[in-house]
Design a protein that fits this description.
348 residues, alpha/beta, TIM Barrel, 7-stranded parallel β-sheet, two-stranded antiparallel ribbon, 9 strands, globular, binds coproporphyrinogen III
Length: 348
């Protein structure tokens, strides 16, 4: 018997098959907006949590149960892969991530090690295995990783950045070193995602969270070939969601770089987004997470507006355009999910 997740609305939408109900899940669905997550975090550091597979599995399984979403995503972090590649990683409380000994010069690029195996990241493999084992069989599990640009930007800036000047300086002034760096990251991420697939993930999402700081010509020259390398190396038959935020002009290029599903943010209408991607690609997104701050009838109205924009086009997965914000009322998250599930698919 094929596994139950094959017939889930999520995987059907990924394959652009007809669905009875539009599937929905949320980026950062397990996070600080949930009181039970904050309670857990009072007892364990964020990195301590990420490195404890049983806790990671428990956090996501309980979140999926509470929200009634159509897919689970591995509980982990984008930046963990950079530690075994040679960077220091810390999440000081109340601040964003900090990476020690950032990469600034061509000589620094040489000390970024390519990931050759998962020996130092067994806790991620184990978290996937335990999450898969504990989820109901009809709920697919999404693995994830950072796209090469976003990981390179963190490695170079040493944390979040406003203008990405160190990243762009290396890119513009030493293109050869940039390509070496991006190639090394791309192959590492492909290995990392395939390990998550082998451990039980049904799909993977590539997050290019910071690539919106680039214009289209720079994306094509400096990023697209490397994102394409990652996507082409993913195990055949396993769907890839390719997500970026910040610059809607990049959507056609994101589509060209590849992915079975293109994840878009709220800066463009979903019907316009559908016109910018290849017909065989599904689309995911794109509610502004700030809408979820309230009020609730506005949440419901905006969700219906989003669903109406997709119309009858097959291959749609409802989501936010970026992660759930801390401080979001749980009831508004539930209202979004309920409104998506109540939508009459054929009524479009
Ligand atoms: O619920 C889920 O979506 C699963 C888990 C998940 C986390 N991070 C948990 C997390 C996922 C998929 C991510 C991806 C991630 N991590 C991204 C890509 C998505 C995006 O937001 O663009 C990025 C850029 C990161 C790096 C990162 N991790 C940042 C910038 C921060 C700090 C910002 C913040 O919200 O505090 C983190 C920390 C982080 N990752 C938290 C969680 C639940 C909050 C940490 C805490 O508990 O204090």
């Amino acid at each position: 018997m094929p596994p139950a997740w094959n017939d889930s609305p999520f995987l059907k939408a990924v394959r652009r098959e007809a669905v009875g109900q539009v599937p929905v899940w949320l980026m950062r669905q397990a996070g600080r907006y949930l009181p039970e997550y904050r309670e857990l975090r009072a007892k364990v550091s964020f990195l301590g949590l990420c490195k404890d597979p049983a806790l990671c599995a428990d956090v996501m399984i309980k979140t999926v149960q509470r929200l009634g979403v159509d897919a689970a995503i591995l509980f982990s972090d984008l930046l963990l892969i950079l530690e075994p590649m040679g960077l220091g990683l810390d999440f000081p409380s109340g601040e964003g991530p900090v990476l020690g000994n950032p990469i600034r010069t061509a000589a620094d690029v040489d000390r970024l090690c390519e990931l050759e195996n998962m020996d130092c990241l067994q806790f991620v493999v184990e978290a996937v295995r335990q999450t898969r084992a504990g989820l109901p069989p009809h709920v697919p599990l999404i693995g994830f990783g950072g796209a090469p640009f976003t990981l390179a930007a963190y490695a170079i800036e040493g944390g979040s950045s406003r203008d990405y000047r160190a990243t762009k300086s290396l890119m513009y002034h030493d293109a050869a070193a940039w390509d070496v760096l991006m190639g090394r990251i791309a192959r590492s991420v492909a290995l990392y995602l395939n390990a998550q697939i082998d451990a039980g993930a049904q799909a993977v999402q590539l997050f290019d969270s910071w690539v919106g700081c680039l214009g289209v010509d720079d994306y094509r020259r400096y990023v697209l070939p490397h994102s394409r390398t990652v996507i082409r190396q993913i195990r055949a038959g396993v769907p890839v969601i390719h997500f970026a935020t910040g610059n809607p002009a990049l959507v056609p290029l994101l589509s060209e770089a590849g992915g079975d599903v293109i994840g878009v943010d709220w800066r463009l209408r979903l019907d316009d987004a559908c016109g910018m991607i290849r017909p065989e690609q599904a689309v995911q997104g794109n509610l502004d997470p700030v809408v979820l701050l309230g009020p609730m009838d506005e949440v419901r109205r905006r969700v219906r507006e989003m669903l109406a924009q997709v119309g009858a086009r097959p291959g749609y997965i409802a989501n936010l355009g970026h992660g759930v914000l801390p401080g979001t009322p749980v009831d508004n998250v539930l209202a979004m999910i309920d409104t998506v599930h109540a939508w009459q698919v054929t009524g479009a």
